[in-house]
């Protein structure tokens, strides 16, 4: 499993297109959205716009790396026969799923770090040392949830259908979770739905730290529940794919 994790990380780092969209795109989007209004206050929130979107874009970048990269890569590997070859080795099914989740979450780190550096250097965000560490760790830990979702989608969809299905989850979760617009600016029925999606709890972890508080147990519990759900679905879909093969 360790060998597979190293292989997956190396493959992702060599993919220039993937690295652009998962590492460069989020901080660039952060500057584009908040650059000219960095000192403005978020509507309905007692927080600077630059601070709000720093956490939002760190989450967005991590989700891009683990969700988009995982799902499409797995669907292509299934069609190319790579997964079938792995089944001939001593690697167990749970090891394959765990390796995919771990390697994807590891690759999300550069995006998170670059967004935080952009906030500190270019946007003038100021936090205590523990807050910087806590925001980074919570953003990274939360990305495991979407890495598991990416594995599940990769086994659920074919190579032709995986991209539109992934994009549906990608943009839907980003919108409902408040990564582009604060939840307070959305209609009431959208907020009611968004309160139960994993991206809402994901961004809430960093926002709590920004305010100087510990993450709420409800948000941590919701993310843990989704991690178990998505990882279990990925493992079940992997076993189903094995039986078909």
TrEMBL record:
It comes from the Bacteria. The chain crosses the membrane at residues 20-38, 50-68, 101-123, 129-157, 164-181, 220-238. Keywords: Antibiotic resistance, Membrane, Transmembrane, Transmembrane helix. Residues 51-234 form the ABC-2 type transporter transmembrane domain. It is a multi-pass membrane protein. It holds the Pfam family ABC2_membrane_3. It is found in: Membrane. This is ABC transporter permease.
